[in-house]
Amino acid sequence: MKRVTGLGGIFFKARNPKALGEWYRQHLGMDVSEWGGAVFRWADDSPSGTTIWSPFKEDTDYMAPSSAPFMVNFRVADLHALLAALRAEGCDVQDKVDESEYGKFGWVMDPEGNKVELWEPPADR
């Protein structure tokens, strides 16, 4: 019997859901619907795409400077171009970029102080 087969959604509290949804639409290009959320269709966009679920130790500083107990990771096509655009738009982009065999990783803080991880997978994925 199959149990969990993928990540069905990411849900979190927000002080101002409508304004936060608008920030994600404007700066990260997410298609935020009238009902307030966005739907990602992997089969249409990336048949080989994956979504990772991973718990971290409670004392990790990986999500810092956010105080939230979660972090969302979004796949992106061109990390450096997106980070430059976000900086130009006045977003709080972290200076650090990690590049490894797993791809390129960068981070931006949303208006409510949540750290958002942006990931450009390696070309062979």
From TrEMBL:
Pfam families noted in UniProt: Glyoxalase_6
Gene3D superfamilies noted in UniProt: 2,3-Dihydroxybiphenyl 1,2-Dioxygenase, domain 1
InterPro entries the UniProt entry points to: Anthracycline_SecMetBiosynth, Glyas_Bleomycin-R_OHBP_Dase, Glyoxalase_6, VOC_core
Domain of life: Bacteria
VOC domain span: 6-121
Record protein name field: Catechol 2,3-dioxygenase-like lactoylglutathione lyase family enzyme
Organism (species): Pelomonas aquatica
